[in-house]
Backbone:
């Protein structure tokens, strides 16, 4: 499938990711494809308006985001979820305050992707383009097997979303972490104390200020690319960057510790695309 | 020679009744009524009263302070995360830094200082007083609360036919913790809808709680753990820093709303 332009949208609230390096990486992976770096998609969109029109745009966007919030893991987000004014106020504040790093709510990834997609102009909605949007918000998709929402690292689609907080949270830490945390909870420890107790059992895992996040993010961009090129984002090889890691240990193996970046099949997938684009 | 000045029993009774009634009459109309005297309610009250806002805290227990006296597992040590230690500095509460950004203080010291600071600022209390209902005005604006003596709820119904009374205010703050009593009453009447406890990452709940603190509906502000009930934030997680900063945020919102009313 022809892919000529890739847009990567940064998330300024997470400073440990080097987007220039990500751009260079994609250029190296798919030579001949134009890679464009863009600012945060929501903020750049609202900055395109002024005065009362801008107020209206922010309000509508805040309502849309509040409607995308997952309220109960067991229940799908309804098409027209009613929202509380306080939820809208919260979303507005987050949109307006670029230094606000608060996260923790889970948003339905498909609804969020549709919101992002609606902000793209017609010139940026062409079939040969791919938009990859980084966010520090948690995204979730509903698993058809257990009918619950699960936090995700990436949603591959048009546009694709990479959740930086999801990378640190969605793949599970070592089991001992959760046992220690539950034990501390049973003793009524405060949150900080629980985390302190459990931290020693977490194994190697990523945090939002982890300098390795840029390297890891390359793999999630690659998953979005693979999905676009082949319809399948993931690989069963635990040493391939396209491996769908469910544990931090697996993530670190696939993205950081593996000797080769991609398995033979997926290396050929990217090479083939590079040849198509004359790279 | 007797140490204390001679006073009759009736004089003591008159002093109690007179002082209580004067205050009760005066605070039958307040600027702000805070329901719940835990850390967020006390913090909101202290901030408001220090700005000259006539503030009454309604507390169902005899003691003020809610859960602020003790930490987890009945251990009387409290933890707050930065930047909430600045509140402890303001209150003059000593603390230790357990690790970077995490501070530990004595529960009794912190709680009594917060209560004293609220009193010093001018907050008045109606303790042993239970919230029963809201006073509503045009457009379903919350304009006061209906209250009764707490012991009335503990007695057999046939001997407790005690009607409540209503007191009014420009703003009501629900600081009743997870129960979110004021919100629950409004929901029971079909006038409000809360989300309940929801799907979030627990470890981030303290930030979210402060971020969601604010006006829930006209005349009603929500602070502390009642915020988590209102917006579906996690039950577990927030420590006292979140309560204190939520109270501060609630007071800021109340001041804005009071200014708009002028």
Residues:
């Amino acid at each position: 499938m022809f892919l000529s332009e890739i847009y990567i949208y940064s998330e300024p609230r997470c400073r440990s990711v080097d987007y220039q390096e990500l751009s260079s990486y994609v250029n190296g992976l798919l030579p001949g494809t134009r890679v464009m770096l863009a600012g945060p998609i929501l903020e750049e969109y609202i900055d395109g308006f002024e005065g009362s029109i801008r107020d209206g745009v922010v309000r509508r966007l805040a309502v849309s985001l509040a409607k995308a919030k997952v309220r109960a893991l067991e229940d799908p987000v309804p098409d027209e979820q009613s929202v509380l004014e306080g939820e809208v106020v919260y979303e507005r504040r987050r949109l307006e305050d670029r230094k606000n790093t608060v996260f923790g709510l889970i948003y339905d990834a498909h609804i969020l992707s549709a919101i992002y997609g609606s902000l793209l102009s017609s010139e940026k909605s062409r079939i040969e383009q791919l938009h990859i949007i980084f966010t520090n918000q948690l995204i979730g998709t509903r698993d058809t097997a257990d009918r619950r929402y699960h936090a995700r690292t990436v949603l591959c689609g048009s546009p694709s979303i990479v959740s930086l907080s999801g990378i640190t949270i969605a793949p599970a830490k070592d089991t001992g972490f959760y046992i220690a945390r539950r034990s501390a909870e049973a003793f009524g420890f405060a949150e900080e104390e629980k985390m302190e107790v459990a931290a020693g059992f977490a194994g190697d895992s990523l945090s939002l200020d982890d300098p390795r996040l840029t390297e890891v993010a390359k793999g999630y961009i690659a998953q979005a690319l693979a999905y676009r090129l082949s319809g399948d984002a993931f690989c069963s090889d635990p040493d391939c960057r396209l491996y769908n890691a469910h544990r931090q240990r697996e993530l670190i193996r696939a993205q950081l510790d593996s000797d080769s970046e991609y398995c033979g099949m997926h290396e050929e997938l990217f090479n083939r695309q590079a040849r198509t684009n004359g790279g | 020679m007797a140490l204390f000045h001679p006073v009759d029993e009736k004089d003591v009774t008159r002093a109690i009744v007179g002082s209580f009634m004067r205050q009760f009459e005066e605070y039958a109309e307040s600027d702000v009524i805070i329901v719940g005297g835990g850390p967020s309610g006390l913090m909101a009250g202290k901030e408001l009263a220090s700005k000259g806002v006539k503030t009454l805290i309604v507390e169902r227990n005899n003691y003020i302070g809610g859960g602020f006296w003790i930490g987890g597992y009945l251990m009387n040590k409290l933890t707050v995360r930065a930047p909430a230690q600045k509140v402890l500095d303001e209150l003059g509460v000593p603390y230790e830094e357990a690790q970077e950004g995490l501070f530990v203080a004595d529960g009794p010291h912190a709680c009594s200082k917060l209560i004293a600071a609220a009193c010093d600022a001018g907050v008045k209390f109606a303790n042993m007083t239970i919230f029963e209902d809201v006073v509503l005005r045009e457009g379903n604006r919350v304009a006061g609360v209906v209250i009764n003596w707490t012991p009335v709820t503990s007695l057999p119904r046939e001997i407790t036919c005690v009607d409540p009374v209503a007191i009014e205010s420009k703003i009501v703050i629900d600081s009743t913790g997870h129960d979110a009593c004021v919100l629950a009453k409004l929901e029971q009447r079909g006038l409000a809808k809360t989300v309940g406890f929801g799907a979030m990452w627990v470890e981030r709940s303290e930030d979210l709680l402060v971020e969601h603190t604010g006006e829930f509906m006209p005349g009603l502000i929500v602070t502390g753990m009642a915020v988590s009930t209102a917006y579906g934030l996690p039950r577990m997680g927030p420590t006292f820093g979140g309560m204190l900063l939520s109270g501060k945020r609630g007071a800021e919102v109340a001041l804005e709303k009071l200014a708009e009313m002028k």
